[in-house]
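Table 4 source record.
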Amino acid sequence: MNKETDTYLDDLSKELIKGDTIESPSIDFTASVMKEIEALNVSSASYKPLISKIGWLAIIVIAIVIGFIIYSSNLMSSSLVDLSVLSENKLFEVISSLKISKTLIYAIVLFGVMFSIQIPLLKSHFNKQLN
């Protein structure tokens, strides 16, 4: 934009701002708002488990069915579960050959300790805020 347009817009905005008055709420505004808030029927938060009793029952039934299928398939094949796969795994060999410095071990242990301390502290802090 050019300088004349900027000056015109600046003068126009100054005139509009001078002519405008500040709006203020009525004297009993706070009291009327508080009455309306009290009139609302706010219920407190109730405990609702993440997994319902029916959900836990379904999980248990599925686990029993899977266990029965594995058990019956082992009986039919007449061989027990072969665990040699775990000892012959290449990933296990790679992990066991890793060299970890003492500093890293100390850092991991310290992180675990601090994490274990902070969780109960944060839980109690947020419980106090809710109550």
